[in-house]
């Protein structure tokens, strides 16, 4: 029995030793060559899920609520075009006051790693330039201003072209020869628009005048509507505006007279009054700018001022009350502007006092247009 036990122990030890030898031999046989290791690493790398690229973060800063149906609403329509782009994430801050509040909002976006920030009101210019100096790796775009930096450009549209066309319509439709204009701020942008509108009015109707009331607000629906009512009380039978709300349109509708909107098609607010509107189309420009930032071709320090030839500005569809001959006249003038013939401020043009301010055959430079601080003949109102 003892011999049998020793025999079994010996057999088990030999079997274990043979297993160890087999294991060592197996490891050596399966040892990967350098080529095999490289192939295995490449296969594992291909099989691993690719890291998703960070989305391009784009911010928009608005001076009024998106629901203003006007200026900020038109910019937000452009933002929505950008938001549909693959690999792009957008954020909008609305109803931001010009001055320190806008500086805080713009800086907060830059601090959070936004790649591109659009500041869309004139009063955002200095705050944006200040923040741009603090965040040189962020790209900034300011609407309607004139200052730039290495990482900040500005942009705007030649809205005066659309204003001129809507003036043609207003001048053709007035019976009293008194047209009211509810105006926001006494800055060149607004003054330029009033002048272009008046030139269109008097091209269609040399006897008509444009009465201006200043509100000194961008967005105050109640005040803007009251201003329009004061013009209606003075005998105006067409109301135009450079305001963000449809308040003036609603006043015209309630009085049974005509109106010309601004920023967006405001026909739904005054279906019986609305003749047309000077409107923005920001989508194509915003999309192009985002693509440039993404591919590295965007440049700071530039100024972009585009007109009807770039489809940035347009006029809304005519109201059904606008006669066919007026439509034909306006479309012919629009075709000239779309073709690049910017004739709106071509002289001779007289100022309010009847003296020539732009000589015959002359056209103001962009710098002169951007700094315009006088009214043309036919405007009833003053600039402080």
TrEMBL record:
Region (Disordered) residue spans: 28-51
Keywords: Signal
Protein name: Basic membrane protein A
Stretches of the chain forming a coiled coil according to its record: none
Residues in ABC transporter substrate-binding protein PnrA-like domain copies: 57-325
Biased composition range(s): Basic and acidic residues: 28-41
One Gene Ontology term, aspect cellular component: plasma membrane
InterPro entries with a match to the protein in the record: ABC-Purine-Binding, PnrA-like
Pfam families, per the entry: Bmp
Signal peptide: 1-22
């Amino acid at each position: 029995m003892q011999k049998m036990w020793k025999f079994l122990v010996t057999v088990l030890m030999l079997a274990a030793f043979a297993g160890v030898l087999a294991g060592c031999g197996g490891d050596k046989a399966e040892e990967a060559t350098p080529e095999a290791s490289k192939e295995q690493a490449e296969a594992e790398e291909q099989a691993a899920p690719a890291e998703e690229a960070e989305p391009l973060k784009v911010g928009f800063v608005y001076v009024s609520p998106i629901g203003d149906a006007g200026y900020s609403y038109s910019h937000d329509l452009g933002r929505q075009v950008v938001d549909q782009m693959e690999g792009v994430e957008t954020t909008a801050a609305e109803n931001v006051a010009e001055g320190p509040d806008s500086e805080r909002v713009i800086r907060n976006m830059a601090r959070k790693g936004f790649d591109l920030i659009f500041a869309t009101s004139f009063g955002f210019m200095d705050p944006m330039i200040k923040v741009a100096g603090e965040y040189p790796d962020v790209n900034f775009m300011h609407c309607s201003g004139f200052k730039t930096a290495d990482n900040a450009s500005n942009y705007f549209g030649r809205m005066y072209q659309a204003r001129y066309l809507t003036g043609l319509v207003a001048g053709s439709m007035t019976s009293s020869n008194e047209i009211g204009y509810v105006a926001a701020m006494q800055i060149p942008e607004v003054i330029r628009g009033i002048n272009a509108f008046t030139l269109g009015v008097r091209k269609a109707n040399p006897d008509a005048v444009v009465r201006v009331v200043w509100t000194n607000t961008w967005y105050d629906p109640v005040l803007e509507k009251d201003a329009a009512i004061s013009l209606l009380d003075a005998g105006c039978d067409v109301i135009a505006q450079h305001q963000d709300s449809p308040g003036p349109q609603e006043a015209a509708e309630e009085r049974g007279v005509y109106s010309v909107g601004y920023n967006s098609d405001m026909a739904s607010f005054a279906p019986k009054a609305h003749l047309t509107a000077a409107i923005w189309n920001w989508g194509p420009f915003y999309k192009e700018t985002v693509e440039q930032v993404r591919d590295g071709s965007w440049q700071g320090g530039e100024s972009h001022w585009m007109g009807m030839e770039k489809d940035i500005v347009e006029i809304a569809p005519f109201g059904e009350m606008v006669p066919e001959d007026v439509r034909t006249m306006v479309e012919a003038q629009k075709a000239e502007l779309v073709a690049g013939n910017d004739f709106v401020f071509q002289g001779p043009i007289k100022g309010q006092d009847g003296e020539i301010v732009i000589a015959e055959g002359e056209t103001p430079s962009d710098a002169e247009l951007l700094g315009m601080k006088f009214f043309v003949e036919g405007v009833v109102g003053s600039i402080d």
